[in-house]
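worker-3 :: picked Putative helix-turn-helix motif protein
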Amino acid sequence: MASVNNVRKIRESKMMSKAELARKASVTVQTIDRIEKGNDCRLDTKRKIILALGYKLGERSKVFGEETSADDRASSQVKTKSKSKVKVRRQAGKGKRQA
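worker-3 :: tokens ->
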């Protein structure tokens, strides 16, 4: 699924080649090329590219837009499930302490 991002525009404004960005982000030039064409990538790859471009992770929307990718949704679902498990464990632990 193609998504709009600003990777190419930002990279070019910083006078970086695809090879330089790929090296800084520890990914392949082909990965950079695919992302600049709008293909999706893993969340970890986005994180690497954001940092390699000199942005903070909180500024990811400046690089990748406001999209909600499948990776982002999956990540938030995992966090939600983890939080609910913690609540269940805490509640279960309270019952044991009182006994």
